[in-house]
Design brief:
Layout lengths: L7 H34 L13 H25 L3 H31 L11 H32 L9 H26 L2
């Protein structure tokens, strides 16, 4: 397929999708670097062995996966021109994203209650890595929530329909990426303990 072919609108759509995928690729490389550093650091003498991830992190996996389902349902509803149902699914996705962040913060609280802090005399390199990886992921979920708010706003202004869903599709792609990323990070951290 020749990427130079097509109308201005088609080229614009391809360019926006390509930019999103370049951004996702750079995020994958960043998190690959942090998880690689985690693996390499496991050889340190002060590395904490046998830690347990907070229960809130496990619950956050379930919540973020549910949010992906509601985003898929929102897209399907929009494709069927069911605007009210689309709104309900988009707002549900937003609420699940907020619950995800609340659970992550609860997980941080559980780690601190166990005596581990991000820095200071009660910190530990293992837990510092976990705090850092989870916090950077939360920052990306916040970006996803901002995108979702823009999508909801545009949807309420009836900018999207079954034939014009680019903004929703871009936001959904990013949202699914951060969801899959957290699933990977949770499994990685769980089995690296």
């Amino acid at each position: 397929m020749d990427l130079t072919q097509g109308s201005f609108e088609e080229k614009n759509k391809r360019a926006k999708k390509m930019m999103l995928w370049f951004g996702i690729a750079s995020l994958i490389m960043s998190f690959a670097g942090w998880t690689s550093a985690f693996v390499v650091s496991r050889t340190r003498k002060d590395w904490l062995k046998g830690y347990e991830l907070p229960d809130a992190f496990m619950w956050s996996v379930i919540i973020i996966l549910l949010s992906s389902v509601t985003f898929v349902l929102a897209r399907r509803a929009l494709k069927s021109n069911k605007h009210q149902l689309t709104t309900i699914y988009l707002i549900t996705t937003l609420m699940l994203g907020i619950i995800f962040i609340a659970l992550q913060l609860q997980g941080f609280g559980q780690m601190m209650t166990s005596g581990y802090n991000f820095t200071g005399p009660t910190s530990n390199i293992t837990m510092t890595f976990i705090f850092l990886i989870a916090a950077v992921h939360i920052a990306h979920v916040v970006v996803g929530l901002i995108c979702l708010l823009v999508v909801i706003f545009n949807h309420l202004k009836q900018k999207y329909n079954a034939n014009n869903m680019l903004g929703l599709e871009l936001a959904a792609t990013f949202w699914h990426f951060v969801d899959i990323l957290w699933l990977y990070l949770f499994i990685f951290l769980y089995f690296m303990s």
